[in-house]
Design a protein that fits this description.
This protein is of the alpha/beta class. The chain has helices spanning about 30-35, 105, 120-135, 165-175, 210-220, 285-295, 310-320, 365-370, 410-425, and strands at about 15, 20-25, 45, 50, 65-70, 70-75, 85-90, 150-160, 180-185, 220-225, 225-235, 240-245, 250-260, 280, 300-305, 325, 330-335, 340-345, 350, 355-360, 375-380, 385, 400. Bound molecules: FE2/S2 (inorganic) cluster.
Length: about 425
């Protein structure tokens, strides 16, 4: 039962994956539809041809690259399904599920050092270089040239809020209440971010995100969903941000006196041997796929982590009818060939599973902040680099603020409070 039998999650279109029909829901991501169809292997790694499947389901890990309608290296987790879409696995022959080049991995248990193997004689070296070039790389060239992008339109707002999760919504709400003309942006098609998982129901009422969007437009601002901030730089006085959306194609160059970055963190893969096996996913992303599309990519789920998010995930999966186990000991190995089949703990215990949900909080995602010069420090408590962001959201860069998990792991309720403080600091 990879998708809940519920009329709310009925499929309404079909995409093909490596020639097989996959039922899907219009607008859900290709990765979500493939998980629901239990097609977990979508590509192969570029050198050893290890199986690759979606991990983060949010565009930050790059393990879900596929060819879509002749265009290579599309992220399956960021590509919405459309009836008749043709999706192909890549970096594999004949396809990712049965990749003959996959023998490279078990045949080279100590690695494949192409810089020192067969450096002579010359003919053997050339043959090896030709072969290794076939192993490497990402996909084939596109079937046709990319269409010309839309013209760039320059625009000005009082404030630009990047991210419509709990922190960004709170910041935008405060600024709109002050009468500021705000542009609120999120790359997802729905606002709410992690609130949409329902894992922290007390953080905000379900109607709050839509209410904030209304408040933003009532104050003369705008919200842009399905829009990605692809660049940010300083041009003269205030920062400038490049925003790109696909549907309809639009490129906007936005200048704002204040930019509040609430873009969230990056799901981090667990650290044990075999952590790249398909079937190991961000728990938060799985919860979202379950809540919005009824996707259950397995039957026995092992939830990693000891915090409240891991406990909430276990409860959520158990309530959906899965056999959920919260793993508390140290994991040393994930076993399986084309998908995870069990976890081995340091004490020798083996936990059978066909899905692993990473329940540890994400690492900070300070990419945009760093592009403008915000410093980062190694934080041993969260074992990650964290940007220097003050409790009121200010940074060392004038006009640039941040709040929420872009800076450090916080609960959704804490993100709301931090976003409010950042909104208040950005009002001046
Ligand atoms: S980028 Fe698609 S699953 Fe991570």
């Amino acid at each position: 039962m990879p998708r809940l039998r519920d009329s709310r999650f009925a499929t309404d279109c079909t995409v093909t994956f490596d020639g097989h029909a996959v039922p899907a829901r219009s607008g859900e991501s290709v990765a979500s539809a493939l998980l629901a169809a239990e097609r977990l292997v979508v590509s192969r790694s570029s050198k050893y041809h290890r199986p690759r499947g979606p991990f983060c389901l949010s565009g930050s890990c790059g393990s879900c690259l596929v060819r879509v309608d002749g265009e290579p290296n599309r992220r399956a987790c960021r590509t919405p399904c459309r009836d008749g879409m043709t999706v192909e696995s890549q970096n594999a022959w004949p396809d990712a599920s049965h990749d003959l080049l996959g023998v490279i991995d078990p045949l080279t248990p100590h690695g494949l050092d192409v810089h020192h193997m067969f450096t002579s004689p010359l003919t053997v070296n050339r043959a090896l270089v030709t072969f290794t070039r076939r192993l490497a790389g990402f996909g084939r060239m596109p079937d046709r040239p990319a269409p010309a992008g839309p013209p760039v339109t320059p625009e000005c707002f009082d404030a630009l809020v990047l991210g419509a999760g709990p922190a960004g919504l709170a910041a935008a709400e405060v600024l709109a209440a002050e009468g500021k003309r705000v542009l609120l942006v999120d790359r997802d098609l729905l606002p709410g971010g992690r609130l949409r998982t329902g894992l922290e129901p007390g953080a905000a009422p379900p109607s709050w995100p839509a209410g904030v969007l209304r408040a933003v437009t009532a104050a003369g601002g705008e919200f842009a969903l399905g829009t990605t901030a692809t660049g940010i730089w300083r041009d003269g006085g205030s920062p400038v941000c490049l925003l790109v959306s696909d549907d309809p194609p639009r490129t906007r160059l936005v200048r704002a006196a204040r930019i509040v970055a609430c873009t969230g963190g990056h799901a981090r893969p667990p650290t044990f041997e075999g952590n790249d096996l398909p079937g190991i996913h961000s728990g938060r992303a799985l919860a979202l796929a379950l809540a919005e599309h009824g996707v259950l990519p397995g039957r026995h789920v092992a939830v990693l982590g000891a915090g409240p998010e891991a406990a909430a995930l276990s409860a959520r999966f158990a309530a959906a009818g899965l056999d959920a186990t919260q793993v508390r000991g140290a994991v040393t190995l994930a076993r399986g060939r084309s998908r995870v089949r069990s976890l081995l703990l340091a004490d020798g215990t083996s936990i059978p599973c066909d899905v692993v949900a990473q329940g540890e909080p994400p690492a900070p995602g300070p990419d945009l902040l760093r592009a403008l010069g915000v410093g980062v420090d190694w934080d041993p408590d969260i074992e990650a680099f964290a940007p220097r962001v003050a409790p009121d959201g200010t940074t060392s860069v004038p006009g640039l603020l941040a709040a929420g998990e872009v800076a450090r792991p916080v609960s959704a309720a804490e993100a709301v409070a931090w976003g409010r403080r950042a909104g208040e600091a950005a009002r001046g």
